[in-house]
Design brief:
Layout (H helix, E strand, L loop, with lengths): L19 H26 L9 H15 L3 H5 L10 H30 L7 H23 L8
């Protein structure tokens, strides 16, 4: 798999070079933190608007982040992984299930946003938007952490 940032033109005023992994990790951590911070703030400001079941989307998104980033690109390609009960096919399946959970969390939070917060009995729209942004930021953070790093430096 090619990395997303390889095709970007080089930045003249800043050369990341060896610090690419550090910046991708910081950006992914900031996105993850911001997502959870938004829903915690929405729950503190509007405690009646955010039900306990709404937090399941964020939990599934967090599990998706761990699943997506638990498998390296070399394992998915089959270069460095031949053990286990399924080999590279198991790594690909694990990655696929992680992406499905991440997309499902974003789609479910979008559904909750429009069904419960913009519906006829709409609650605080800010809490619904915070719920959607939480899952969007968590999924964005998992994508940045997966594809923003260079794995060649690990070996």
């Amino acid at each position: 798999m090619a990395n997303c940032f390889e095709n970007l033109p080089p930045c003249v005023w800043f050369e990341g070079g060896e610090r690419r992994n550090a910046f991708a990790s910081i950006l992914a951590g900031f996105l993850f933190f911001s997502g959870w911070w938004l829903i915690i703030d929405a729950n503190a400001v509007h405690p009646d608007a955010v039900r306990g079941a709404y937090h399941v989307c964020g939990i599934i998104g967090t599990v998706s982040l761990f699943m997506i980033n638990a498998v390296s690109n070399a394992q998915v390609r089959g270069d460095s992984f031949s053990g286990g009960c399924m080999g590279p096919r198991g790594a690909r399946t694990w990655l696929f299930v992680g992406f499905v959970l991440g997309f499902a969390a974003v789609i479910a939070s979008c559904w909750i946003l429009f069904a419960d917060f913009f519906g006829p009995n709409g609650k605080s729209k800010a809490a619904g938007i915070a719920l959607f942004l939480q899952n969007l930021f968590i999924f964005g953070g998992s994508l940045v952490y997966k594809f923003g790093r260079a794995e060649e430096q690990w070996g």
